[in-house]
Amino acid sequence: MIAELPPSDIYGQKLCKTFSHRWLAIAGSTEDATDPKWETIGTDKNGQGKFPLRARTLWRMWQDPAQLVGVRFGNQTQYGLLDIDRGSKFHSAEGVNAISEALEVIGIVRTVTIRSSFSGGIHIYFPLPEAVPTFDLAAAVKYALEAQDIHIEAGQIEAFPNCKSFGRSWLSEFTQYNAHRLPLQPGSGSVLLDHDYRPQGSSLQMFFWRWEYAQNAQDMELLTEALRHGRDQHRKRPKIKAHPAQIWREDLEYSISHGFTGEGQTNGLLKDIACYGRVFEGLDGHELAEYVERIAVTRPGYLDHCNHQHEIDRRSRAWARAAERYYWPMGSEPKRTALVFDINTERAEDAIARIKSAVLQLATTGELPEGIRERVRKLCQTAHTSAQTLYKYAHLWHTDQWYVTAHGEGNAADSGNSTDPPPDPLKPAPRGLLHTNQKNMKCPPLESPLLEFCNPDSQEGKGGPGEREGFPQVQRY
């Protein structure tokens, strides 16, 4: 991998390293402090990021007094900040102190406070000594402030990173964290503030000295616990006003976006994908099956945790058929009948079809083993099934319950168009003792009391072992 070229200035390097997520960066003008006219840079015609801003480009833009530059957040971050507008009720020493006290509850005990621009807004940075999940930090800060009756809202106080909504990444729909301007840019009016919130210059050296001091002072043990609680609280937040269909959709999107996190999750995830594709995308038939497979193989953790990669196409088709019979597109007429479709039935039919196909294939090519053990091994390999499933349908392949009749596809036995006369009708079974040919008998002899009862005059010299050793039989007289 080619290393990125950093700026030559040591503080330029620190700036680029600190604000390292430069995808979908923003740029604005310093002409009007109240309206920078922000624009997202580095995007294609669909608004997606084509390339990140280079480190040297970011440093050059930061130095330019005629323009502003800002960045967003990735999945991990080592800082956050709060933006207090000039007209906010928290834009005072008391308001900032109240916010700082709320942050201390979750382990953020030191901050770096600056004036954001000539408009007079305040940015409160909280650096961290190690990277943490971005969304967890956003949730922890949000609920820590709300616990002190400090609510995040436009015109009052805004948080970076923000609790963004989940985008449908499997459909190339992404939601980004909000972008923020970089601190202390020349020509922007951004300066450091002292403890009394008075301007104290715009030196990057002083800024990073405070930054490192705050990093080392944070209580990460307390913050780590707060991150977990914040994430859980956001997941369990009440959705009173949401429509049930919207709740269902969001739950499916959340489940699909997280993908595989352990073993034994393939069927559950395929079911969610098939349900979403059928109900909210209106897919059916081959398109639905292709959709289920395409989304499944691109989920996080697929290569690490999915143990059905060799048959993911077959399982995707099975779940697509199940979803098509059980669900219908949102807004259309219900199509489900009184007979509820059972995926277990679908899986059983699929297993039977695979076993039949494997038996026919091996029998046709002469590769079907005679021995039971070897036959089980070969069929499990060809039919992609387990021995347990194979024995459940033993009548399809076991030598004691199955045989192959060799005939062509055009055989009259198949077509039912034979002109031969019908066979003789069945005759009633003869009364009395039934005897078998000696060479074909594979069972122990009848006990002597039964023999005596059937023919008491023939006891002497009759019965007993046959001519072949190891095959005791009753001799026919």
Question: In short, what is this structure?
Answer:
With 477 residues, the protein is of the alpha+beta class.
The 3D shape can be described as: elongated
Strand order of the largest sheet: 7-4-6-5-9
Order of helices and strands: HEEHEEHEEHEEEHHHHHHHHHHHH
- Could you give the count of β-strands? 9
Q: What percentage of the residues does DSSP assign to strands (E)?
A: 5-15%
What does this structure look like?
- The chain has helices at 10-18, 55-63, 93-104, 134-146, 204-217, 220-235, 244-258, 266-279, 285-297, 302-305, 312-326, 343-365, 372-383, 387-392, 412-415, 448-454; strands at 26-29, 39-40, 67-71, 76-84, 112-115, 122-133, 157-160, 180-181, 191-192.
- By secondary structure, it is an alpha+beta fold.
- It has a 5-stranded antiparallel beta sheet. The chain has a 4-stranded antiparallel beta sheet with strand order 2-1-3-8, with helices on one face.
- A hairpin with a 6-residue loop joins strand 5 (112-115) and strand 6.
- Helix 7 crosses helix 8 (266-279), helix 8 packs across helix 9 and helix 12 (343-365) crosses helix 13.
List the helices and strands and how they pair.
Elements: H1 10-18, E1 26-29, E2 39-40, H2 55-63, E3 67-71, E4 76-84, H3 93-104, E5 112-115, E6 122-133, H4 134-146, E7 157-160, E8 180-181, E9 191-192, H5 204-217, H6 220-235, H7 244-258, H8 266-279, H9 285-297, H10 302-305, H11 312-326, H12 343-365, H13 372-383, H14 387-392, H15 412-415, H16 448-454
Antiparallel strand pairs: 1-2, 1-3, 3-8, 4-6, 4-7, 5-6, 5-9
